[in-house]
Amino acid sequence: MAAFLGLFRRDLSLALRQGGDTGLVIGFFVLAVVLFPFGVGPEPEVLQRIGAGIIWVAALLAALLSLDRLFEADYQDGELDLLALSSLPLELAVLAKCAAHWVATGLPLALTSPFLALLVDLDSGSIATLFASLLIGTPTLSLIGSVAAALSLGARRQGVVLSLLVLPLYIPPLIFGAGAVEASAVGSGARAYLLILSAVSLAALALCPWASAAALRQALE
Amino acid sequence: MINWLANPARFMRLSAGAVPWCGWAAAFVLAVGLFWSLVVAPPDYQQGDTVRIMYVHVPAAWMALSVYLFVAVASAVGLVWRHPLAEVAARAAAPIGATFTFVCLATGSLWGRPMWGAWWVWDARLTSVLILFFLYLGYIALANAFDDLSRGGKAAAVLALVGVVNLPIIKFSVDWWNTLHQPASVMRIGGPRIDISMLAPLLIMAVGFTLLFVALLMVRMRTALNERKAMALRLNAGAIPAPRPGRERVAPANTVVP
Hints:
The structure holds two protein chains of two kinds. By secondary structure, chain A is mainly α. Helices cover 86% and strands 0% of the residues of chain A. Chain A has one domain (2-220). Chain A has helices at 2-18, 20-40, 44-67, 72-77, 79-85, 90-119, 124-151, 158-169, 171-186, 191-220. In chain A, helix 3 runs antiparallel to helix 9 and helix 7 packs parallel to helix 10. The relative contact order of chain A is 0.15. By secondary structure, chain B is mostly helical. Chain B has one domain (18-41, 48-224). Chain B has helices spanning 8-40, 54-81, 84-116, 124-143, 149-163, 166-176, 196-237. In chain B, helix 3 (84-116) crosses helix 7 (196-237) and helix 4 runs antiparallel to helix 5 (149-163). Chain B is globular, with a radius of gyration of 22 Å. The interface between A and B is medium-sized, with 25 and 23 residues.
């Protein structure tokens, strides 16, 4: 447990002190959302209708941006070999890194989303649902992303391969996350969507560390 | 059987004889099936002649799913028992499966236009098959993304196993959600709900598609094995520098090397 917490703290302080990661992700997130009114026109009805979808898609892309940093630096300087040799199971090490990645990127994304929701003119009920859905959904993005990041370690043109692998797997959280906001906007209740989204998150929490650890072991062979 | 086939030389000997048989059998069965389904089989009382798209669409969809299952099982066998042919088989099968998936999507689109009035609808069955297509593409991209051949094979194998999650979603999507796509009418509890005059050519086409897959798979596996042999020969002759085994740690492109 001490090793788990130590790794979590180390990754988190690296991410926060280098500063670039969180700021870059949030900057991209805001810019991507702000671009849409220029593209589709500033009418409030249009923006209200597609706002939640825009914010969710922008969050996916922003999370994707930071994924290659998840293992790459540790892989280059040999830290990963030490992690694989240490007494902490590699699955738990992956979980600690994912948790740190989520605190450094997913959580700030969720915290920023209410302000962006104001820009696209969502009502207050929808904003609460959007915030809840991102809070539940962003851990899935880090977890699924860790599998793809581990698989593509050392690949040629890693960024392209990474996005090709990860975006199809991001579709389920996108469907249920954006669906929840839609349902609350038309007043049919977002509960069912949020529950399914939680189920997707829990399944990812249970399965993804195993797949990532298996992929990392192959990368280190 | 599985160990007996683990010898690539034995596989090359066996497949050399089997490829023409399989190929001609596929050609014959597909010719019979196409004639039966396009000329002999009756038109549908509601859909008319457009129902004939089914005889290509449905077997292609079955193949898209079963080839993915084949890739996943071969990947698991390759990862667990280090079976030398399993990885070759999985890599060889993936582009064939991707093609079947594309045929399924394309014919479905052509069929959807007259029946539903749209080339594409975002319902659960269509969306999940589209994800399957992207999974195939991701598998192929990942398998070819590494300088070290076996590293690519293993990474792609893990991805194939992760993607298996999608198979039950595709199969049961028509039961779980209200879809425009019709529910299962052949493989269902209580027997097929389709007349024998249409079921017979459909099954013949399915057999033809399977034979075609087996023939193409063997041809592609033989090519891959020959390629590896040629690569090994050239390496031994010292014609090209050997890629370093394992990881390659190169400086990032933007660092200045003095």
